[in-house]
Design brief:
Elements: H1 5-13, H2 16-29, H3 34-45, H4 49-58, H5 62-68, E1 81-82, E2 85-86, H6 93-109, H7 114-117
Antiparallel strand pairs: 1-2
Helix pairs in contact: 2-6, 3-6
Amino acid sequence: MTMGNKQDERIAKMTFASVYPLYLEKVEKKGRTKEELHEVIEWLTGFDDKQLQQLINAGVTFDQFFQQAKLNKNAPLITGVICGYRVENIENPLTQQVRYLDKLVDELAKGRKMEKILRAG
């Protein structure tokens, strides 16, 4: 499935720092913690707390964020619908990676068990 080029470009230019507080608010509103959010982000990207804070402070775009990430080898196991799109069918690699992150945050907020979110079994 193809998202419009304009939407792909918009996602690429968005800063991670502009979206991170929304992720945090979403999970905390549902009783999950910042630590759990960071665990999910680290699983997907390889960024620890210190690296994550540096990227936020630097104002990196999602494009820069995922260029620096070491995507988890199990990321393709993330499937389902987020923002009206099936993540496994998104053709633009960057948009798919951002939607992987969105999906994991959504699963965390919905109370899914961490081992399921992290595709551990």
